[in-house]
Amino acid sequence: MPPLARITVYPIKSLDGHDVSEAAVHPNGALAYDRRWAICDAQGRWINGKRTASIHAIRSHYDLDSRTVTLSAAGYGEPATFRFNSDVAGIESWLSDYLQTKCRLFENANGGFPDDAESPGPTVISAGTIAALSQWYDDIPVDEMRRRLRTNLELDASDPFWEDRLADNGGPPRIFKIGGVEYRGRTICQRCPVPTRDSHSGAAIPGFARAFAERRQQTLPDWSPRAAFDHFYRVAVNTSPNWVPEGATLRVGDELE
């Protein structure tokens, strides 16, 4: 079975990902530091890429050992570095000034802020899927497609959509193990407007979602559970925990069982 080729966490929800060689696993199945912080407006509503295209232009670089983030944007002064444990107000102020709206940063250190509360585990995709999707569009290289999809675990499998094997097909639960953690494969992830946009500028490709759905349906592998597709703008598998041992850690190179 394929090994883990890449682990990516997104410390601040909707900002850049951060590749790690290993990640501790919370009891809810989520990876440590993944979506640990989330940006909200003054009314407590999420500020994210689904609703705010300008957020794509923000660059965030993390040093998780020192618990710092460096924020920058083209044409917006010098990069600014903040400590999560002592300067949350500084992060909020920088974001508020850039996005031109009052921002607050909320933290959940015990499982983050997943989009789907029923599937709080990491999203899973294969390297072959990312490569295939990149070929569907002009001028979207593999690295850019990876940034658009924002998944957590990338398997070293060359078959496009290999990960569909892990999705719930309406029968017995699809249980798989990585690094001693048992996960249940859930839905094939319904995509939002984020993949349609350039991950640096926020500029959208007209017709992206329609072309994606058409090609996805045309190239659906025999192993994909067709019952999981009420529409075909879906890719990568959502997960929930089946069993998380104490002290569990996922590492690049761990094989899927």
Task: Briefly summarize what is shown.
It contains four helices and 14 strands. The protein has two domains: 4-31 and 115-251, M1 Pyruvate Kinase, Domain 3 (Beta Barrel), CATH 2.40.33; 37-107, no CATH class.
Description:
The protein folds into two domains: 4-31 and 115-251, M1 Pyruvate Kinase, Domain 3, CATH 2.40.33; 37-107, no CATH class. It is built from four helices and 14 strands. It has helices at residues 88-99, 127-135, 142-149, 208-218; strands spanning 4-9, 18-20, 22-24, 37-41, 59-63, 68-72, 80-83, 103-107, 124-126, 153-155, 174-178, 181-190, 234-243, 249-251. Strand 6 (68-72) and strand 7 form a beta hairpin. It is globular and about 50 Å long. The mean pLDDT is 96.
The biggest sheet, with number of strands, parallel, antiparallel or mixed sense and barrel status, is: 4 strands, mixed
Integer count of domains: 2
**Which H/E pattern describes the elements?**
EEEEEEEHEEHHEEEHEE
CATH class of the largest domain: Mainly Beta
CATH topology of the largest domain: M1 Pyruvate Kinase, Domain 3
By secondary-structure content and strand pairing, the structural class works out as alpha+beta
General shape: globular
Order the strands across the largest sheet as they lie in space: 2-1-10-9
Span between termini: 6 Å
**Strand-residue proportion:** 25-35%
Total helices: the number is: 4
Overall pLDDT confidence: 96
Question: Rg from C-alpha positions?
Answer: 18 Å
Oligomerization state: single chain
Number of strands: 14
Low-confidence stretches: none
CATH architecture of the largest domain: Beta Barrel
- Helical amount among residues, as a percent range? 10-25%
